[in-house]
Amino acid sequence: MAAPAPVSAEEQAFLARLVHRGFLARDAAALVLQACAEVDFDDALLAVTDWDPNRLAYLLRTDCMANPEIPGYQIEGLLGRGATAEVFGAKREKDFARVALKILRPDLAADKIAAQRFVAEAKLLQELQVPSVVRGHRAFRFLDTYILEMDRVQGRTLEEELAEGRLFEEKEALGIVVQVARALEGMREAGVVHRDLKPGNLMIDREGKVTLIDLGFAGAGMEGTHGEGTTLGTAAYLAPEQARGESDLDGRADIYSLGATLYHLVIGRLPFEAGDDQEMVRKQVLEGLKGSAMKGRRVSPTLHFFIEKMMAKDRDVRYADAAELIEDLEARL
Q1: N or C: which end of the chain has fewer CB within 10 A?
Q2: Do the beta carbons of residue 161 and residue 144 sit within 8 Å?
Q3: What are the structural domain ranges in the chain?
């Protein structure tokens, strides 16, 4: 019997990719390499994983689902990549409708909490019928991960615009706030707090229409947290009560995050800057806004008022809800 061929550089790279993408544990990869002393690489991988040859061929062909092939869809390309999922443009084969497929990262699919959040978001996007919030159509499992079919939203995220150095004029920025506030009001009426409002979750098209595209942390108050005192959301936009891990969150936390987003759009940088998330959270709780940054940008008294009120440390000073914010915006603009 001929000795197995040495593990090639390409095979080693594929094995590393399987680990990186979450299809194979590190200790299983080590077992594959050990087994290669007796059998060829493919046979070793199949023996250790108990996969069938078709699955192995699929993972090779799609670069471990980095270029996925999903039954019933023609994949048209990557639209975006976030902390927990990748979003691909696709065409449904049954009716040729163009949609977006949000695919939970395979390495997170085995994480119970991450999977629960993804499924909860899918259900919420299917149930909510709120203007300016992306609609979800169906969710399903495929190859040990989860996939959500959604509306395909045109445009770019506000985060992408900011990353390229764009500064928004006051009128446009406040127009964005009105649109997002209407989405938040619709969610509030459905009993939902977003909890992770930020530029990366907001898409804007060429006509200035804004769509909220991610509800991954949305829920009632702090439901779905890891435990008491757990903080959800993105540190740079967290309301102080959210940063403290308080359990009775309401829509005023989203209004704070929207105020921080408004600040970022017109000033061009974050309200608070820090070297890490822990320091950022401390600043959200303890530090007040510095008026000098807004003076340097020649912010109007009206805009200054909205930012200060929306980002008040005491949530009782903020707008009571998005409807009150909308009313004040429309009266002053």
Answers
A1: N
A2: no
A3: 9-61, 73-151, 156-332
